[in-house]
Recover the amino acids of this structure.
């Protein structure tokens, strides 16, 4: 295809053609992705410099997050919900289901887990021993159920899942707001809009490990399981086939509805689990704005990782670093929080362009007759 | 009808039109973009950019420059979209989401007091910087269309609004005419229905798609400007609140016709104002969150109803979302 053609004086015509490459090797893919990441950093540095912030300072603070153990723990804490939600999204995206709703599913997970604790503190519900398992189960189910709504609407009514999942995000966030301002407000909370604190029995911990490492370990286990599911199970194979060609898989007799529903349920359930980590681990209670957008960050992280679970784990940690350095920069040079969002957007754009570079090459061709048709 | 209840109806209708114009300008533009076969999920971010541009430019140079500036910023984002989705043939969904992200992040950043102050100073040093920190700008003045504005009911609803409301209505009419009554519109629609055929007929698909995306994006920029200076001239983070995505679903509701987009948008403008009217009646006065959910829930319900009404055959442009390449 011709995108640009210039007539030079004389008869020589130059044209820029887009040509398809052979299937890229994994090494080539990684190099391209890293190269584009580098560009994303350069470009966002340029934007910050233009808007009056020192790009060098921003780069330095990004790498500072790796240097001290305290910072690194913060990176892991912030990465965990992103990893879980992003791994979940891989299940949706590999089937071609555009789930933008991880944020809402995460909020439903937070709401359900908190609900269990609120019941407990009111004297109902599960006892001390069962508190954490009940909260985990509730968050998985609530996140999964919230994901079922858009998939059923898509299968039954053809409703565009991008729109429905986004709308459901707002609904879930508003529901959380409604609860913490109303029925679930901690009576002993000095009037703050927040719920009671999670008791120690409702918090995840592994003896001998710091909390952040325990969360990360949990996320790593989920990542490993997902890797196995994708690689070795029938479900993993079928979900990939659906994503490659929906019509062909329908004709070949795959039970598309059931596979889609299962896949999106898992997707939502993992986002719900991410929500549990937030309320039970990171902040210890539900309050408005409990998630700074982990569910949205997860979308980019899963795409940056090319939907490969292990790569997604690392790209999510990169996002944890970005969030942590964002906090640092807010404290040190009063950089607004949305600065991090700009960097993420640039990474997203870079990821997309990397897809192009992997698949096509540009070739400048010149000829006397103008071959570039 | 008593005079009092008439004035309540007038107030409801006129605020529905006022809120609906946000959707109208954006969805009319998106009708054009989608008719050419490109879906622009970047609307949300472009609206946010239009809003922040209009905020800063209104303070610096007044309303007219602000509106033009918002349109230009929208056009730049549209150019980026077209470059990635039309020339590089990348997945339109992902491109659109990335643009939404960039727009939301950039506008949030530019709206933060410390950044906004610097930008205002750079735009016009004679304006006091502290104005940017107040996060407010003068609202677009009401333009009464005498004597039409004195007509009962319709007068206040349609003819006592600000200039951008009239612009929205006019652009719907003009673009509907171009789209369905001119050769140019026929070419554009053929590009969205069957690009290969249009290509053999000698229509420049790439030029038309670029133009359609850029026009749609500029209108989204203007919609953002209207949202700020015409509707709610107070800057908050996440000012757009998914309205760009609601506009996308309104394009489906209006079955890709700018004319029907008028009805769809004003209907949703009405839904939007319900959020403020229901709490006045007592429900949700203390915790308005459930009422605030309404536009989102109703958007979902609308999508279901459209599907039921069309029996699953939604008349989308056939090539919508598909990149065009001569080789495939």
């Amino acid at each position: 295809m011709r995108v640009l053609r210039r007539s030079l004086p004389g008869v020589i015509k130059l044209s820029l053609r887009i040509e398809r490459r052979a299937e890229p090797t994994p090494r080539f893919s990684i190099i391209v992705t890293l190269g584009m990441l580098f560009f994303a950093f350069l470009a966002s540095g340029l934007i910050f410099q233009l808007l009056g912030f020192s790009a060098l300072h921003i780069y330095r603070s990004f790498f500072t997050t790796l240097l001290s153990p305290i910072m690194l723990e913060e990176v892991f804490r912030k990465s965990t919900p992103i990893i879980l939600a992003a791994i979940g999204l891989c299940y949706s995206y590999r089937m071609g289901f555009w789930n933008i709703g991880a944020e809402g599913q995460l909020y439903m997970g937070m709401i359900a887990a908190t609900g269990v604790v609120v019941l407990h503190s009111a004297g109902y519900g599960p006892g001390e021993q069962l508190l954490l398992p009940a909260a985990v189960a509730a968050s998985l189910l609530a996140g999964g159920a919230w994901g079922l709504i858009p998939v059923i609407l898509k299968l039954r009514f053809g409703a565009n899942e991008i729109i429905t999942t986004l709308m459901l995000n707002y609904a879930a966030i508003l529901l959380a707001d409604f609860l913490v301002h109303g029925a679930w407000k901690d009576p002993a909370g000095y009037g703050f809009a927040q719920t009671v604190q999670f008791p120690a029995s409702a918090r995840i911990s592994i003896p001998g490990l710091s909390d952040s490492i325990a969360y990360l370990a949990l996320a790593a286990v989920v990542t490993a399981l997902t890797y196995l599911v994708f690689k070795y199970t029938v479900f993993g194979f079928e979900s990939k086939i659906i994503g490659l060609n929906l019509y062909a898989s329908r004709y070949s007799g795959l039970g598309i509805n059931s596979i889609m529903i299962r896949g999106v349920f898992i997707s939502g359930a993992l986002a719900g689990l991410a929500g549990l980590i937030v309320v039970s681990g990171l902040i210890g209670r539900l309050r408005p704005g409990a998630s700074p957008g982990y569910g949205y960050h997860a979308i980019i992280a899963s795409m940056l990782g090319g939907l490969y679970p292990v790569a997604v784990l690392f790209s999510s940690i990169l996002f944890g670093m970005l969030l942590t350095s964002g906090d640092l920069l807010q404290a040190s040079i009063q950089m607004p929080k949305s600065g991090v969002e700009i960097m993420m957007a640039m990474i997203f754009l870079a990821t997309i362009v990397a897809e192009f570079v992997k698949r096509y090459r540009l070739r400048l061709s010149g000829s006397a007759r103008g071959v570039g048709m | 009808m008593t005079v009092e209840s008439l004035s309540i109806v007038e107030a409801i209708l006129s605020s529905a039109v006022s809120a609906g114009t946000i959707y109208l300008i954006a969805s009319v533009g998106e009708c054009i973009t989608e008719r050419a076969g490109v879906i622009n999920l970047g609307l949300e971010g472009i609206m946010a950019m239009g809003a922040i541009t209009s905020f800063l430019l209104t303070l610096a140079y007044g309303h007219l420059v602000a509106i033009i500036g918002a349109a230009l910023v929208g056009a730049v984002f549209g150019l980026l979209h077209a470059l990635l989705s039309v020339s590089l043939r990348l997945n339109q969904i992902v491109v659109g989401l990335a643009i939404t992200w960039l727009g939301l992040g950039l506008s949030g950043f530019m709206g933060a007091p410390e950044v906004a102050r610097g930008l205002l100073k750079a735009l016009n040093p004679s304006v006091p910087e502290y104005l940017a920190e107040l996060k407010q700008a003068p609202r677009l003045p009401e333009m009464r269309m005498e004597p039409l504005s004195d007509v009962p009911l319709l007068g206040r609803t349609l003819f006592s609004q600000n200039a951008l409301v009239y612009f929205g209505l006019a652009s719907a009419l003009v673009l509907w005419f171009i789209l369905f009554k001119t050769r140019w519109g026929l070419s554009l629609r053929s590009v969205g229905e069957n690009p290969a055929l249009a290509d053999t007929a000698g229509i420049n698909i790439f030029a038309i798609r670029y133009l359609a995306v850029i026009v749609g994006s500029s209108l989204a920029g203007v919609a953002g400007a209207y949202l700020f200076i015409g509707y709610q001239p107070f800057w908050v983070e996440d000012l757009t609140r998914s309205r760009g995505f609601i506009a996308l679903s309104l394009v489906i509701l209006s079955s890709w016709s700018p004319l029907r987009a008028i009805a769809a948008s004003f209907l949703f403008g009405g839904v939007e104002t319900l959020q403020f009217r229901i709490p006045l009646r007592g429900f949700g006065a203390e915790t308005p969150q459930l009422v605030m959910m309404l536009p989102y829930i109703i958007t979902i319900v609308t999508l279901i109803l459209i599907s039921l009404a069309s029996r699953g055959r939604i008349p989308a442009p056939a090539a919508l979302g598909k990149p065009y390449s001569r080789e495939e």
